[in-house]
Design goal:
mainly alpha, 78% helix, elongated
Length: 51
């Protein structure tokens, strides 16, 4: 696996954690979920409402 691919996937997970915290969600849970789902988690976060 290419190192840049892993780095981009991890960066996306960190960005998703930040978005989740901005919506009053648990950043760690969304970080871990993003490691599994990747861009799909980003789209879920975009449509989830703020608590």
């Amino acid at each position: 696996m290419d190192n840049s691919y892993v780095m981009r996937w991890g960066t996306l997970a960190l960005i998703n954690a930040g978005i989740a915290q901005g919506k009053n969600r648990t950043g760690l849970n969304w970080f871990l979920l993003s490691l599994v789902l990747g861009p799909v988690a980003t789209f879920i976060l975009l449509f989830v409402e703020k608590r």
